[in-house]
């Protein structure tokens, strides 16, 4: 087979590869097959990089944690330790995947009405688009059907052209729209929770409520 370091080099050469969950899934599986590694640390790094859809990576990481034959760095192989690690993983997932969605009310930025954005405001951010994603399902909680997360993301024409040539597994699966007008045309959800992107401190006209 191809050495792992060569595979890593190929994956890392893809523009913005860290934005895709499948990049981290491949990395996790390669590391799990060749050595011990900090699987929870990898998961945290993926979320901080904005990898999507993060739920797919979460499944792989949980599978690695639950594998009794595998000993990952900092992970104890006994059943009690495994349960503790899985619980920590699930708590981390709820805190980090949901972003603003499940933060305390005083830290939440929420959209309560259809936002109004002027043309001038849109022109100020020509490379910014809106990523629409379902709210991650929490254990023991019903799936949220009537609201979505909306996050501003940077998407250049050059990167979009490059992404269109990626294999299907590395394609972006969340809906990304160029404007709020386009969002209202293609998305029937009436309620959105605005999730701030720390790399893009803009609101694009969304009303931010802070208690």
UniProtKB/TrEMBL annotation:
It is found in: Cytoplasm, Cytoskeleton. Keywords: Cytoplasm, Cytoskeleton, Phosphoprotein. GO terms for cellular component: centrosome; cytosol; mitotic spindle. Residues 1-124, 144-200 form the Cytoskeleton-associated protein 2 C-terminal domain. Pfam families: CKAP2_C. It comes from the Eukaryota. Belongs to the CKAP2 family. This is Cytoskeleton-associated protein 2-like. It comes from Castor canadensis (American beaver).
């Amino acid at each position: 087979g191809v050495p792992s370091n060569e595979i890593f080099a190929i994956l890392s050469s893809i523009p913005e590869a860290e934005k895709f969950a499948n990049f981290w899934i491949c990395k996790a599986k390669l590391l799990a097959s060749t050595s011990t590694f900090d699987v929870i640390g990898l998961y945290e790094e993926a979320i901080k990089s904005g990898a999507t859809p993060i739920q797919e990576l979460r499944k792989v990481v949980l599978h690695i944690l639950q594998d009794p034959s595998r000993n990952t760095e900092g992970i104890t192989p006994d059943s009690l330790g495994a349960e503790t690690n899985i619980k920590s993983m699930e708590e981390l997932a709820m805190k980090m995947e949901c972003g603003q969605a499940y933060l305390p009310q005083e830290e939440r930025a929420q959209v309560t009405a259809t936002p109004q954005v002027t043309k001038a405001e849109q022109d100020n951010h020509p490379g910014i688009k809106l990523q629409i994603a379902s709210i991650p399902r929490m254990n023991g909680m019903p799936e949220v059907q009537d609201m979505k997360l909306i996050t501003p993301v940077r998407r250049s024409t050059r990167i979009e052209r490059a992404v269109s040539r990626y294999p299907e597994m590395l394609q972006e699966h969340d809906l990304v729209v160029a404007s709020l007008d386009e969002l209202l045309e293609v998305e029937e959800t009436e309620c959105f929770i605005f999730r701030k992107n720390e790399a893009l401190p803009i609101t694009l006209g969304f009303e931010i409520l802070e208690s």
